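User: Can you fold this complex?
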Amino acid sequence: MFINFWYVAGRSDTLTDQPIKRRMLGQDFVLFRDTDGHAHCLSNTCTHRGGSLAGGRIKGDCIECPYHGWQFDGSGRCVRIPSLGANGRVPGRARVDAYPTIERYGLIFAFLGDLPEAERPPLMEIPEHTGSEPDAGWRATIQHFDWDFDYRRSIENGIDGAHNEYVHPTHSYSGERDTFVPAPELVHTEWGTGFWVEREAPPLADEKMRAASGRHKDAVIRAGTGHHGISSLWTFIYPTPDIKIHQYLYETPIDSGHTSLYLVNLRNFMLEPEHDERMKYRNENTAGQDRDVLMDVRPTLTPESRSKELFVPSDGTIAAYRDKLTEWEARGWRIDTDEVERNRLKVAYAIPSPARRESKGWILDPIPTLPAGESIADRKAANE
Ligand code: FES
Ligand SMILES: [Fe+2]
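Assistant: Here's the predicted assembly.
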């Protein structure tokens, strides 16, 4: 798992007037709204005696620890320690880490890392959703799943052009034809790799969609997919030139082997709300087909060495994703999960927040990361 990326901390509509505890990157966070309705994301561990802030109450613009009532504002600053009395001076060191948040597309994004704003990898934007609602001509649905697999395995599945034929029977012909071998056009960006492909597909299985598209026969459909950053995925599907499905999937590692998936699906047809459930059902069905495969791949976590799997030409996007992981690990962004696990009962860590670059004297240790420079994959390759 990696610090220094934007992750979805939750759906906007689930954060109301009560704090929520969220586990991300193997650590606990508290989400709450202030009196203006702004969402905040703080490290959940109180700096006093380690109370769980999410178990407390919202008091004005602060979250109040349930143990001794210390209050922390949205910037993480402790503003009240009741046991000091009315005029007590609250020490600056009582602060907790607070993470930049952006609320957009019905989701709450938190930047879990300490990079200053100018250096942060950008979150994956949705160009068809520039306001609080999708742009005219588009309809959006949001779905959330918590599933038991490694987010990297899931992203690799998303950018794997050879899996659709076998994993998704409605996408193609389940291996009955030899025409599925993709000849993808690869797309490389600063933060990701993807591809576009044209492939033969059977008529749409869904009767309503078949009617909406006017496509009743086999056809060549155009589709593209790619990852952005560590764990976001875009997928564009054009069953006909006029029908567009644009999917934006944001994956948040809960911990090693468990992942929250947030899917924003935009469509430019069947725009009436009554069709939302049909679209969501289709998406859940397809995602469930991926989940069933991914939960049983071994090892559970993406192997550190490429020699422990066989790569063929259609795996080029996956190799490119792993190159990006190696690059981000070499920047010092990869969490040392072995060390965290070793100290699980002894140390409460915090993901370092940007404020740690400005001031010293933080109570919680920053989560250990692998040293910048050489990655694990580099070291393994050197030894092979
Ligand atoms: S542990 Fe939070 S106020 Fe004491
Ligand atoms: Fe899939």
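The CA atoms of residues 83 and 297 lie 53 Å apart. Helices lie at 151-158, 164-167, 207-213, 276-294, 316-330, 337-342, 376-383.
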